[in-house]
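[Meeting: bench + compute handoff]

Bench side (C.D.) handed over the final construct sequence. Compute side (W.E.) agreed to return the predicted structure before the next meeting so the bench team could plan truncations. Sequence as handed over:
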Amino acid sequence: MQSVSSYSGKGALSAPQQFVQLCTNEGPVADPCICHSCSPEAPLSSGDTWLRWMLALTLILNLLDGMFTLFAVKAGLAIEANPLMADLLAQSPMQFMLSKLALVSGGIFLLWRLRERKLAVVGSVCSFSVYCLIFFYHLDGLQII
């Protein structure tokens, strides 16, 4: 396997050009991708698969939390506990939902991109756990469970 610094194709390539060649599988090296996140088609390890499912479920639970909150607040059964989100909800339910979905989606995206770090995995598990608890809290409030 050739290293990045020893690769010399037709003409000398700068370091950024060599990196682009490696990450786009255009370079004549045995291991075309030197970074884990440069290729969206990179195979997932079993650890990445369970984390991907957990983060996807966190997004779904966030959506359900927003819908349950809208229902409960409109029915007069509850109030929004988060003061920032309560202000958004008072302004517009659409603004509330879009902000909620955007903020949590952005956080999930960062956790996924940093998934190689233990703290990101811990944060992912904590986020999922909190949204599970919130989901069951909503179900309990609706007297479903």
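W.E. noted at the follow-up: The chain has two domains: 1-43, 46-141. C.D. will use this when planning the next construct.
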